[in-house]
């Protein structure tokens, strides 16, 4: 379980996260949604320890996360960002293996795990020999997900992983990701702007505004009983051509 207690983070005169207390349940997918600049990415970066809180604590399992968090704890969290964040000078295979090589895994073990993950994310093995600029956006994200899963982390943090993809590839990956989350039983924190994507993957949604939590609960609560005028407006702002 991940527990945030009274977390505040300010950059110069911007309070990105404002006294957030939140429990992220093990084995569940929590989606952080809210308008641009409401603090979603900063919350993920606080959880993985890339950003240090001004106040409050982040606990992952029984460990407090901070600048001195040992690598073993960070390795229990996989992190995927919008454009994949792959190293351009490494092939897909090189990107996937980077942490395992750093930890001196044998070549056989790296290869076996790579094949297992390619199967999981449904990526043809030959794609792994390409460099990122030779791959489609969807393939890059599948490789980025493999890299995040390589060490079999307990926690998966995904920051708008599908934001840059065209609608059909995005829908395919939404389905695959939801299946993967359910199969692997990881604690997942997923950031998106898109309410229908949130509804598709989330066990629970957290709506943020100006660094504060507006509402948490199942998507049905947000849709049927928005807690504030802002929550109602946020839901209504997502137009659908199907209604
Ligand atoms: N390293 C930084 N230095 C200065 N300001 C920052 C930094 N990181 C984030 N901020 C500011 O903190 C606020 C929250 O940013 P954050 O990226 O967490 O929002 P977000 O909800 O993820 O936005 P988006 O949906 O646009 O990605 C914003 O006002 C942003 O400009």
From TrEMBL:
PROSITE patterns: ABC_TRANSPORTER_2. InterPro entries: AAA+_ATPase (IPR003593), ABC_SmlMolc_Importer (IPR050093), ABC_transporter-like_ATP-bd (IPR003439), P-loop_NTPase (IPR027417). GO terms for biological process: quaternary ammonium group transport. Residues 2-235 form the ABC transporter domain. GO terms for molecular function: ATP binding; ATP hydrolysis activity. The keyword ATP-binding applies. It comes from the Bacteria. Keywords: ATP-binding, Nucleotide-binding, Transport. PANTHER family: SPERMIDINE/PUTRESCINE IMPORT ATP-BINDING PROTEIN POTA, SPERMIDINE_PUTRESCINE IMPORT ATP-BINDING PROTEIN POTA. This is ABC transporter ATP-binding protein.
């Amino acid at each position: 379980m991940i527990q945030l207690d009274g977390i505040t983070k300010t950059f110069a005169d911007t309070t990105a996260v404002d006294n957030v207390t939140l429990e992220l349940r093990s084995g569940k997918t929590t989606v952080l949604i809210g308008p641009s600049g409401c603090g979603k990415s900063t919350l993920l970066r606080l959880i993985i320890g890339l950003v240090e809180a001004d106040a409050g604590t982040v606990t992952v399992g029984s460990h407090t996360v901070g600048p001195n968090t040992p690598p073993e704890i960070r390795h229990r969290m996989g992190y995927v960002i919008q454009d994949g964040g792959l190293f351009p000078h490494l092939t897909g295979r090189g990107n996937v293996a980077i942490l395992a090589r750093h930890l001196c895994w044998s070549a056989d073990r790296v290869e076996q795990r790579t094949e297992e993950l390619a199967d999981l994310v449904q990526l043809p093995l030959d794609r792994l020999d390409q460099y990122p600029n030779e791959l489609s956006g969807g393939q890059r994200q599948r490789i980025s997900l493999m890299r995040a899963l390589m060490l079999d982390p307990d926690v998966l943090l995904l920051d708008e992983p599908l934001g840059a993809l065209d609608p059909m590839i995005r829908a395919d990956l939404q389905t695959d990701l939801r299946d993967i989350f359910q199969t692997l039983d990881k604690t997942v924190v997923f950031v998106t702007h898109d309410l229908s994507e949130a509804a598709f993957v989330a066990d629970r949604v957290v709506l943020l505004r100006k660094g504060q939590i507006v509402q948490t609960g199942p998507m049905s609560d947000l849709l049927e009983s928005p807690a504030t005028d802002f929550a109602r407006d946020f839901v209504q702002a997502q137009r659908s051509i199907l209604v």
